[in-house]
């Protein structure tokens, strides 16, 4: 079950954290996986050491030509996992235009651009899988993540819109919404025991998740076994949204 032999997958933001866990699992099921990073090809290559058969690719998703830059390196793919994002924690009245644009361009704008480039092949072959990676902040508002949360909500809306339009072509589009996951992005904050304890109190399961808690859901959505799931938003957050 869940075999992906013969499939090609692009996982954005896959040099660490959730993206790397997803890349490893998809590759373990037989997919050829493009491991994407934004600034360091060497970091991509190091990540590929953990991804069987992984192929490093580089593109800054905040740039207008990011989709074309990636496509030149990957060619057509069957599976597109839109995991990369940037996050700036700041009060709403301190958000700069540059920080606003960077988050909207990377977290939301690139999702549309990548779909526009990669979906035509999926339509032609009548098979494709797209998974967007959202956030618990779609439901739980954080006072310092106003723009980040808004971009994730926008990405979810786009995924639902595309799911309806692409279903007749055999393409599924789904969103997953991780909660507090112990990744490099969160390591500094979670290392503060007082802060960590306060956050854990908000999670019914009582602990932070691991990247490996997220990857299996992505595998299901990318597999033939997940063919009848589209337009779904799947929280993986230990109940934090409740």
How does this structure look, described?
By secondary structure, this protein is α/β, with parallel strands linked by helices. It has one domain: Rossmann fold (3-Layer(aba) Sandwich), CATH 3.40.50. It has 8 helices and 7 strands. Strands 3-2-1-4-5-6-7 form a 7-stranded parallel beta sheet, with helices on both faces. α1 (17-28) crosses α8, α3 (66-74) packs across α4 and α4 runs parallel beside α5. The longest helix is centred in the middle third of the chain and has 29 residues, at 97-125. The radius of gyration is 17 Å and the shape is globular. The model has no long low-confidence stretch (mean pLDDT 96).
Number of helices: 8
* Number of strand segments: 7
Low-confidence stretches: none
Task: Please indicate the percent range of residues in DSSP E strands (runs of 2 or more).
Answer: 5-15%
Order of helices and strands: EHEHEHEHEHEHHHE
- Using the coordinates shown, work out and report the CATH topology: Rossmann fold
CATH domain class: Alpha Beta
Helix content: 40-55%
Mean pLDDT: 96
How many domain modules? Answer: 1
Main sheet: which strands, in order across? 3-2-1-4-5-6-7
- How far apart, in Å, are the first and last alpha carbons? 32 Å
**Measured on Cα atoms, how large is the radius of gyration?**
17 Å
CATH architecture: 3-Layer(aba) Sandwich
Largest sheet: 7 strands, parallel
The CATH superfamily name is: NAD(P)-binding Rossmann-like Domain
Shape: globular
């Amino acid at each position: 079950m869940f075999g992906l032999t013969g499939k090609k997958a692009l996982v954005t933001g896959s040099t660490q954290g959730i993206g790397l866990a997803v890349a490893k699992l998809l590759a373990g099921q037989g997919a050829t996986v493009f491991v994407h990073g934004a600034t360091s090809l060497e970091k991509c290559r190091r990540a590929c050491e953990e991804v069987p058969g992984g192929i490093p690719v580089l593109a800054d998703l905040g740039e207008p030509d990011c989709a074309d830059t990636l496509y030149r390196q990957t060619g057509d793919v069957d599976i597109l996992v839109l995991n990369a994002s940037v996050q700036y924690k700041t009060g709403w009245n301190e958000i700069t235009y540059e920080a606003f644009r960077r988050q909207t361009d990377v977290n939301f704008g690139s999702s549309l651009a990548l779909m526009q480039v990669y979906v035509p092949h999926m339509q032609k072959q009548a098979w494709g899988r797209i998974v967007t990676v959202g956030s618990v902040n779609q439901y739980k508002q954080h006072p310092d993540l106003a723009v980040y949360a808004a971009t994730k909500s926008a990405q979810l809306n786009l995924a639902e819109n595309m799911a309806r339009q692409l279903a007749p072509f055999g393409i599924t589009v789904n969103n997953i919404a991780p909660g507090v996951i112990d990744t490099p992005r969160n390591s500094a904050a979670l290392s503060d025991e007082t802060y960590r304890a306060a956050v854990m109190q908000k999670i019914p399961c009582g602990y932070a998740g691991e990247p490996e808690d997220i990857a299996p859901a992505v595998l299901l959505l990318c597999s033939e076994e997940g063919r009848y799931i589209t337009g779904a938003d799947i929280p993986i957050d230990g109940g934090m949204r409740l």
